[in-house]
Amino acid sequence: MSDDNPDVWLEQRITRIAGPEDERLAPYRNVRERDLVGREGRFIAEGKVVLNVLLANRSFAIESLLIIENRLAGLKDQIRLCPADVPIYCVSRTTIDAIAGFPMHRGILAVGRRMNPLSVQALIDTLSPTALVVVLCGISNHDNMGSIFRNAAAFEADCVIMDETSCDPLYRKAIRVSVGATLKVPFAQQGPIEAIIETLQDAGFTLFGLSPSGLTSINSVQPAQRTALLLGTEGEGLPPALLQQLQTARIPMSSDFDSLNVATASGIALSRLSRFASL
Amino acid sequence: MSDDNPDVWLEQRITRIAGPEDERLAPYRNVRERDLVGREGRFIAEGKVVLNVLLANRSFAIESLLIIENRLAGLKDQIRLCPADVPIYCVSRTTIDAIAGFPMHRGILAVGRRMNPLSVQALIDTLSPTALVVVLCGISNHDNMGSIFRNAAAFEADCVIMDETSCDPLYRKAIRVSVGATLKVPFAQQGPIEAIIETLQDAGFTLFGLSPSGLTSINSVQPAQRTALLLGTEGEGLPPALLQQLQTARIPMSSDFDSLNVATASGIALSRLSRFASL
Questions:
Q1: Where are the domains of chain B?
Q2: Distances in Å between the alpha carbon of A143 and those of A43, A150, B36, B43, B278?
Q3: Which residues of A touch B150 (CB under 8 A)?
Q4: Domain B8-114 belongs in CATH node 3.50.50.60
Q5: Fewer CB under 10 Å: which end of chain A, C or N?
Q6: Which residues are CB-contacts of A2 (< 8 A; sequence separation ≥ 6)?
Q7: pLDDT the model gives residue B150
Q8: Total beta-carbon pairs less than 8 A apart between chain A and chain B
Q9: CATH class given for the domain over A120-278
Q10: What digits encode the pLDDT tens for the residues B42-73?
Q11: What is this model's ipTM?
Q12: CA-to-CA distance for A108 and A222, rounded, in angstroms?
């Protein structure tokens, strides 16, 4: 698939930029630090796999692409799929590293924007009578957030709902760790966990709080037609007051060791609660 | 448990060091970079939880401890457990950050050393007639290595065996991610994967290679009395030639998405193969 002479259409479609000072590259400057400040619904997606997910999902707009020159030939399909009014900038490795503020191994960056986020209620209204939902309370680590979304996609959870204290799944690192799942699995983030639980109960969901002290083994839980799996922060877990109101489940494991990482726990629980448990 | 005036015994046990230039602190200098070069069986352990695991396991020696002064009072139990000939250095936050080369949030570092590592055969010889072993082929990411050990500890796998192309579980980050499990679960690393498999088969182990293309669903696998779970690199998975010789298992999941992270996959498979599967 090597192609040292890019096609004419490709050369006409892209915009070559010579150095890192060009103002059109401003959205890509110091992406690592900028991610920590207000992003107005925008996010940075990295790599070909994530770009494919982004291109496939109409809930997101692409504002521009930045591609290192030696990756161009391998990205013709993606470039063809990109709407004609989206600028595609092409630069040298030196320039992309200078802009990004660190060595960019993947050579592809996109600025995306989430359009019309749904409220928790509106998202639940889109679900089928049979549904599996992941609910997150206070997940503050972007690696865990990304991994949980990856697991939600692998086991075909219908959506993820997060409380206001959870971190942003569209943070660059969360997107990367999720292999694009945060751009694939529908999600809503809104308000306190108690309000989310009430909304789910009103919609006929049976909720299971996952906790090392949970009453039922996850191996014995019978999923309902509409099931929600609740996960809390790794340090504190779900608030005790919440656990008292809900059915609770535990993953049987050694009493001799620190509990599982919350992302791994989500994978194990989803493998038991999803339709794949019986396959 | 606050204690602004450390006991006399504590003050006599520790060695206060005023600045970062002191030669006794040399093993702790730039731990982040040094980890990448030869370490002669030594490793850096961080934090109280990991220190507890290190103190409990006679397979490891502690060469010295470095503690930030405001953590002293909370570490009396650990200091009491530390052999009398192990130096315990105490420094200010400014000094520890200057030595480590980055802000040390945990305030506790230990230099440990692994004593008399076992060969694969010798490690297998220590196992009971009923055993669950994790075998790793080409796991090169320290986060994955640490997470797999954490899962092995959670589901009480008896040991981990790694081929020569896998990374070092005593790398600082692997120890940290494992929450000390790489200092708890016995392991051996030696030679090519083919030799490891042969040794396990000779010892009566039934081996299951985990792969998205595996023949049997992990939900249907019947563990043998001696079971070994084989995991390959995330990118390539286990070599096809190897999979052809072995029983293979898959985790049923969406065909529509990139496969699970290898660490998450290890957790799901171990939850099915361990004695906890029936609890």
A1: 8-114, 120-278
A2: 16, 11, 23, 25, 31
A3: 257-258, 260-261, 264
A4: no
A5: N
A6: A73
A7: 97
A8: 97
A9: alpha beta
A10: 899 999 999 999 999 989 999 999 999 999 99
A11: 0.90
A12: 44
